[in-house]
Design goal:
The complex is a heterodimer.
Chain A (H helix, E strand, L loop, with lengths): L5 E3 L2 E3 L3 E3 L21 E7 L12 E4 L2 E4 L8 H12 L5 E6 L4 H12 L7 E4 L10 H4 L2 H14 L4 E4 L7 H10 L4 E4 L3 E4 L1 E2 L4 E2 L5 E5 L4 H14 L4 E4 L5 H10 L1 E6 L2 H4 L3 H15 L15
Parallel strand pairs in A: 3-4, 3-16, 4-7, 7-8, 8-9, 9-10, 10-15, 15-16
Antiparallel strand pairs in A: 1-2, 5-6, 6-14, 11-14, 12-13
Chain B lengths: L3 E12 L4 E7 L12 E4 L11 E9 L4 E7 L3 H7 L6 E8 L13 E6 L4 H12 L5 E6 L8 H7 L1 E6 L6 E2 L7 H4 L4 E5 L2 H13 L3 E5 L15 E4 L2 E4 L6 E3 L8
Parallel strand pairs in B: 7-8, 7-11, 8-9, 9-10, 11-12
Antiparallel strand pairs in B: 1-2, 1-6, 2-5, 3-4, 3-6, 4-5, 12-15, 13-14
The chains are: A alpha/beta, B alpha/beta.
Protein name (chain B): Putative dihydroorotate oxidase, electron transfer subunit
Keywords (chain B): 2Fe-2S, Electron transport, FAD, Flavoprotein, Iron, Iron-sulfur, Metal-binding, Transport
Cofactor (chain B): FAD; [2Fe-2S] cluster
Chain lengths: ~300, ~260
């Protein structure tokens, strides 16, 4: 049994496996399938200052080895979260992390400040990369100045670890990563979904209600591994890797590319128990390769 | 209700029409309790173009034989692969998912169950439950033509069966909402499953006649457990997940223009 624990800034994870926001609900939806406390971290659904209805149906299209979604940050707002959901999840014995989104730096900061009060939420993930909302979201994540502004505003009001979730829909993701690092981000996670589109050729219409959506699933994995590798070399803060991870081998690719931890997203839809299988698979791989700790393979690419 | 991931074993696969098969699944252990209207997310192997699981409604749970029945229509490659399953194959299922049809308040309530195409599937199990409580459900089943009427004999063992076909080759000619029974008899509640235009027509009839009515929706879904929020239906209480807060919804909650 290898030592699977890792640290992201001040955040201690019992293993490097987390769940990606928007794919695992609040954890409770999967409680019948996996022991939630055995997951390294659960990043819950994107939360905004005010309630959001999200985009119209259809919000999802299946694509080769992946899917597009344009959910658009449907959630009941941070106050509802604090009042109604937090009490249900606060005693789950793992890192319950809230993904925070907004339409202005002040929005992000106010939402984060309210979550700062919640004792059992040890960190937030800042979503500056949602491709499915008109205002905010990805608008901040595609420029260094926009990304920096959001992180600066949140840093002033939030004193626990901040993980900034980066968009792949940029020319040079390392520039954005460096910009948020300079503003005090404790970690970056990447990649959020790649902007895509699918068309119903019989109806001559886009498959999604807002035409475009975010692509996730195994189809994006090589892009994600490449970006994680680039960012891990460019910043000193720990990197969380995600994008199409379905197996322990996928996860190990990200770890070797330089990720300290990983998130599993779309694969939760294919196998609701995948998180624990990936955790066990990483452990077995380490045992079989004579590694006593997961840290031995983080960034451990041969030259 | 507790949800499970089970590798069920195929007991039999029977062709019901050129497009539909009935797959009977079993397990070593007793199957968990499942309610009428609930569904199963099945994993499709051997279909490179099928990425997500496929939601299939529960056609019947035969607890005496420890069997789960799934009626599968060939729609795309995923469902065509499911139809190729053979006795002894395994099928990975996440179940039971979603809410359920509302049982009648007592056995004297006159219940009409309206199904179209493969949408008849969940009505068989629902009808059996109604019969088990002493009720006598009326099934109104719509199909393109006589050869597309699914599980007719099974429905007849459970209640009264009325049929409409679009070409008139069996029962009354036309759509389910054209059937004469709707003008001649009064029903206390209606549950329906099938193509959306059919369900909307049924909902319109129920609304006009002030009859309790629920529909079983089939919005495209991904997670099946209310996590991804892809399958939402607009309701008077905001967007609701068809996979978790549905698939069965009362028409009073929907924003359909009926």
């Amino acid at each position: 049994m290898a030592d699977l624990s890792v640290k992201i800034g001040g955040l201690k994870l019992k293993n490097p496996v987390m769940t990606a926001s928007g794919t695992f609900g609040y954890g409770l939806e999967f409680a019948d399938f996996v022991p939630l406390e055995e997951i390294g971290g659960i990043i819950v659904k994107g939360t905004t200052l005010n309630p959001r209805e999200g985009n119209d149906y259809p919000r999802m299209a299946e694509t080769p080895q992946g899917m597009l979604n344009c959910v658009g940050l449907q959630n009941k707002g941070v106050d509802y979260f604090c009042r109604n959901i937090y009490p249900q999840i606060k005693d789950i014995d793992t890192n319950m992390i809230v993904n925070v989104s907004g339409s202005s730096p002040d929005d992000y900061a106010e939402c984060a400040a309210r979550i700062n009060e919640l004792e059992n939420i040890p960190a937030i993930e800042l979503n500056i990369s949602c491709p499915n909302v008109k205002q905010g979201g990805m608008a901040f994540g595609v420029t260094t100045t926009g990304a920096a502004r959001v992180v600066r505003a949140v840093r002033e009001r939030y004193n626990k670890p901040i993980i900034v979730k980066l968009s792949p829909n940029v020319t040079d993701v390392t520039e954005i990563a460096k910009a948020v690092e300079a503003e005090g981000a404790d970690s970056v996670s990447l990649i959020n979904t790649l902007m895509g589109m699918a068309i119903d050729i019989e109806r001559r219409r886009p498959m999604l209600s807002i035409n475009t959506g975010g692509l996730s699933g195994p189809a994006v994995k090589p892009v994600a591994v490449r970006m994680v590798w680039q960012v891990a070399k460019a910043v000193k803060i720990p990197v969380v890797g995600l994008g199409g991870i379905c197996t322990a081998e996928d996860a190990i690719e990200f770890l070797m590319a330089g990720a300290t931890a990983i998130e599993i997203g779309t694969a939760n839809f294919l196998d609701p128990a995948v998180t624990i299988k990936v955790r066990d698979g990483i452990n077995n791989w380490l045992d079989n390769h004579g590694c006593s700790s997961v840290s031995e393979i983080i960034g451990a690419l041969e030259d | 209700m507790k949800k499970y991931i089970l590798d069920l074993t195929v007991n039999s696969v029977e062709a019901l029409s050129d497009k539909h098969v009935l797959i009977k699944l079993t397990d070593d252990k007793p199957l968990p309790e499942m309610l009428p209207g609930q569904f199963v997310e099945v994993r499709v192997d051997n279909s490179p173009s099928t990425f997500l699981r496929r939601p299939i409604s529960i056609n019947n749970v035969d607890y005496d034989h420890n069997e789960l029945w799934l009626l599968v229509a060939a729609v795309g490659d995923g469902t065509r692969q499911l139809q190729k399953l053979q006795k002894g194959d395994r099928l990975n299922c996440v179940l039971p998912l979603g809410n359920s049809f509302t049982m009648p308040t007592d056995s004297t309530q006159k219940v009409l169950l309206v199904g179209g195409g493969v949408g008849v599937a969940p009505l068989l199990y629902f009808g059996k439950r109604i019969k088990a409580m002493g009720g006598e459900p009326t099934f109104l089943l719509g199909a393109r033509s006589a050869k597309d009427v699914l599980e007719r004999e099974l429905f007849e063992q459970v209640g009264r069966v009325l049929i409409t076909t679009e070409d008139g080759s069996e029962g009354e000619k036309g759509f389910v909402t054209n059937h004469s029974v709707l003008a001649q008899e009064h029903f206390d509640r209606i549950s329906t499953c099938g193509p959306k235009p059919m369900m909307m027509a049924v909902a319109r009839y129920a609304f006009k006649n002030d009859i309790e009515c629920e529909v079983s929706l089939e919005n495209k879904m991904a997670c099946g457990v209310g996590a991804c929020l892809c399958c939402v239906e607009k309701t008077v209480e905001g967007n609701k997940c068809v996979c978790k807060e549905g698939p069965v919804m009362n028409i009073k909650k929907l924003t359909w223009q009926i």
